[in-house]
Amino acid sequence: MSNHQDKVIVITGASSGIGEATAKLLAKDGAKLVLGARRENLLQNLVKEVEGLGGEAVYAVVDVTKVEQVEDLAKLAIDTFGKIDVWLNNAGIMPQSLLKQKKIEDWDAMIDINIKGTLYGIGAALPFMEKQKSGHIINISSIAGHIAHAGSSVYSATKWAVRAISESLREEMAQDETNVRVTIVSPGAINTELLESITDQEVKSNTEEFYKNFGISADRVALTIKQAIDLPEDAAWNEVIIRPTKQLM
Ligand code: NDP
């Protein structure tokens, strides 16, 4: 029996990619899942798949840039299952481009979804976790939160921010003896729908080529997240970098 059996796990960005793969993997051990994203039909299908795999699930249509919708996702978890054991801040987009192209809408969207969405998730989960004196916040950063390249500026900045916020959170949780664990998961190239968010066609086709050569399944990240959850609760993986074995940078 796995440690995450009976855990209530909230996942943002659950409708595809890493979020979806994680929901399905945890479902196999009977986890209780609370799934948020914007595409309702995908969430509805995922709830059915989760139930077929042996888990329980509810969903809410959530735009993580809307603080009240994120708060409602936390309330849905409490109203349905009575607690929040794990909150996975996973929703994110990666419309990379050169700064000189001045893609201001893309900059704003990355800051709003990748940074503010993560903060709103932390804000929504913490009051319940502090009261429970237990919990686990898992934030998805990226290898791009460790290394910046031409074209990765704003995306890297948002993922760097996720790491900074996570480390401060970790220290605050330890200081207050909340028993809340904090984990940063920083993946390399993972084959998901993420590249669909790239609006610059040249960057998109170059990135697609890179992913075709190096990308690995989202199941690998799901397994990493499951292992982080399964660690005995007096210990936490504070950061995991998971890259394809073949990926150079
Ligand atoms: P996907 O595009 O497959 O998944 C992204 C998810 O985020 C979708 O479920 C999408 O759902 C959701 N999302 C996007 N915007 C919002 C929003 N405003 N509100 C709520 N949900 C939103 O890509 P991945 O699975 O790859 O991405 C998951 C995370 O992993 C992201 O944070 C990404 O930056 C990170 N990552 C991915 C890597 C990769 O190579 N794939 C590498 C490193 C990090 P919907 O559109 O239905 O709202």
Model description:
This protein has 249 residues and is an alpha/beta fold. The protein has one domain (8-240): Rossmann fold (3-Layer(aba) Sandwich), CATH 3.40.50.720. The protein is built from seven helices and nine strands; from the N terminus they run βαβαβαβαβαββαβαβ. Strands 3-2-1-4-5-6-9 form a seven-stranded parallel β-sheet, with helices on both faces. Strands 7-8 form a two-stranded parallel sheet. Helix 3 (67-81) runs parallel beside helix 4. The protein starts with 7 loop residues before the first strand and ends in a 7-residue tail after the last strand. The mean pLDDT is 97. The structure holds NADPH dihydro-nicotinamide-adenine-dinucleotide phosphate. NADPH dihydro-nicotinamide-adenine-dinucleotide phosphate (NDP) binds at residues 12-19, 37-39, 62-65, 90-94, 113, 140, 142, 187, 189-190, 192-194, 218.
Give the ligands present. NADPH dihydro-nicotinamide-adenine-dinucleotide phosphate
Percent helix range: 40-55%
SSE succession: EHEHEHEHEHEEHEHE
Uncertain ranges: none
Tally of structural domains: 1
Q: What is the overall shape?
A: globular
Under the CATH scheme, the architecture is 3-Layer(aba) Sandwich
Radius of gyration: 17 Å
Total beta strands:
9
Q: Taking all residues together, what is the mean pLDDT?
A: 97
The rounded distance between the terminal residues' Cα atoms is 37 Å
Keywords: Oxidoreductase
Domain Ketoreductase: 7-193
Protein name: Oxidoreductase
Organism: Paludifilum halophilum
